[in-house]
Design brief:
By secondary structure, the chain is of the alpha/beta class. It has a domain of 213 residues: Rossmann fold. It is built from 12 helices and 15 strands. The strands form 5 sheets. It has a 7-stranded parallel beta sheet with strand order 3-2-1-4-5-6-11, with helices on both faces. A two-stranded parallel ribbon has the order 7-10. Helix 6 runs parallel beside helix 8, helix 8 packs across helix 10 and helix 10 packs across helix 11. The longest helix has 22 residues. The radius of gyration is 22 Å and the shape is globular. The chain starts with a strand and ends with a helix. Bound molecules: NADP nicotinamide-adenine-dinucleotide phosphate and ligand G4F. Ligand G4F binds next to helix 3 and helix 6. The site of NADP nicotinamide-adenine-dinucleotide phosphate has 26 residues, from helix 1 and strand 5.
Length: 381
């Protein structure tokens, strides 16, 4: 049987990288697009051998330059790859930044999907289309939110995603294109971008532990989010396109927690009181906020047989462990051993040991010579 070809936009992002791994494992030929400014920031997909892949029609993996704001570039990759499945994951994905850059957010996130869908229609491509829709579209609709919940977006990002959501449905209804929406609630991982709140917290904790940073400055600690694990959510994306008909699905964990709880859980893992290390600033508050997201993904469970495994505490544990490992290796607390696999608990335990050296309430580390880098820094204090 001929291998299926999948095209992933936003392949260099958190979800794109996990989805590429999943599809390659399933035997797909995987193609991706990145925009010019993304190169060489391709850390999440470098292990897939971008440069070494031979660019032939049957090569398992390679990428091209294209941009969702450039319809010519989109048509060129569709023409070249003739994909069986398109996963449109590319977007300006930061809600806070969408208030600062509303016009480009709407251009990429609302018009980008329109450009792809219209090219599929115009070129008469026989392919399935997945749209990365978002729980941010629900805005201030009270929880729990499911496929029937009214959408009342509160940000340029949410408005753009809602336009793309309806555009996807319209191309399905009007032109018979297999176009589906995954309405995904927040999902995180060690690969999460640095300015999303979960990663900012776990990276911040690791920085505090190694003496790189004194505090984490955050915005609204009361917001509640339904946080799942990205690697499991990309499986849902694939299942949505394997369903016998195009449809829209909420994907979530059915649990919600405040930002404060995330912070507390992370610092608790280190045996520290978060209140000594976190400051709140209006700088990170948004002009309008989505107060509570809590997804009801019963339809995906029933129709697709998809269910999340990783819940809140495991997610925090995994992300803190990853950032501790990275920082402790970078600063010489631990040797870099690429071929040695240690458990997450190992890094958490090492972090706890270092945390004991932090002087309470002073945000100061006792520089006892554990790390050669810190010894050097001590000299310059
Ligand atoms: P991400 O890590 O920010 O990845 C988005 C990718 O899109 C990045 O690689 C980015 O490239 C690329 N991109 C941005 N603008 C582009 C453009 N004009 N043309 C081509 N590529 C462009 O986001 P993610 O967390 O993986 O999320 C994947 C998708 O799901 C996004 O559409 C997001 O809005 C949506 N979503 C995410 C969540 C979540 O909680 N993660 C929940 C619901 C929906 P650069 O590296 O160059 O910026
Ligand atoms: O991590 P966040 O920036 O994620 P947000 O805004 O919920 O958006 C994410 O999830 C959406 C799904 O609902 C995706 F569509 C979207 O692409 C993105 O992946 O913020 C989470 C919450 C917000 O309420 C925010 O106000 O954390 C609050 N927060 C508090 N302090 C902060 C901070 N958010 C960020 N980014 N940085 C802070 O310092």
């Amino acid at each position: 049987m001929e291998k299926k070809v999948a095209l992933i936009t936003g392949i260099g992002g958190q979800d794109g990288s996990y989805l590429a791994e999943l599809l390659l494992k399933k035997g797909y030929i995987v193609r991706g697009i990145i925009r010019r400014a993304s190169w060489p920031n391709t850390k999440r997909i470098d292990h897939l051998n971008i440069e070494r892949s031979k660019e032939s029609a049957v090569a398992p993996f390679f990428i091209r330059y294209a941009d969702l704001s450039d319809a010519i570039s989109i048509r060129a990759v569709l023409e070249e790859f003739k994909p069986d499945e398109i996963y449109n994951l590319a977007s300006q994905s930061h809600v806070g930044i969408s208030f600062k850059c509303p016009e480009s957010t709407l251009n990429f996130n609302a018009l980008g999907p329109l450009r792809i869908l219209d090219a599929i229609r115009d070129m008469k491509l026989d392919c399935k289309y997945y749209q990365a829709s978002s729980s941010e579209m629900f805005g201030i609709s009270p929880p729990p939110q499911n496929e029937e919940t009214p959408m009342l977006p509160q940000s340029p990002y949410g408005i753009a995603k809602l336009a793309a959501f309806h555009t996807t449905k319209m191309y399905r209804n009007a032109y018979g294109i297999f176009a589906s929406n995954g309405i995904l609630f927040n999902h995180e991982s060690p690969r999460r971008g640095l300015n999303f709140v979960t990663k900012k917290i776990t990276r911040g904790i690791a920085d505090i532990i190694v003496g790189n940073k004194k505090k984490i400055v955050l915005g609204n600690l009361d917001a509640k989010r339904d946080w799942g694990f990205s690697k499991e959510y990309v499986e849902a994306m694939w299942k949505i396109l394997q369903h016998d008909k195009p449809d829209d699905f909420v994907i979530s964990t059915k649990e919600t927690h405040t930002v404060r709880e995330f912070v507390e859980e992370g610092f608790n893992l280190m045996g520290l009181d978060w209140k000594n290390f976190v400051e709140v600033s209006d700088m990170y508050k948004r002009p309008a906020e989505v107060p509570v997201l809590l997804g009801d993904s019963s339809k995906a469970e029933k129709v697709l047989g998809w269910k999340p495994k990783t819940k809140f505490k495991e997610l925090v544990h995994m992300m803190v462990a990853y950032d501790l490992k990275e920082r402790m290796e970078q600063l010489g607390y631990l040797p870099i051993e690429p071929n040695v696999k240690k458990s997450d608990e190992f890094y958490i335990e090492k972090g706890r040991e270092l945390a004991k050296k932090l002087k309470k309430h002073k945000w100061q580390i006792e520089l006892d010579g554990t790390s050669p880098f810190l010894q050097e820094r001590k000299k310059n204090l």
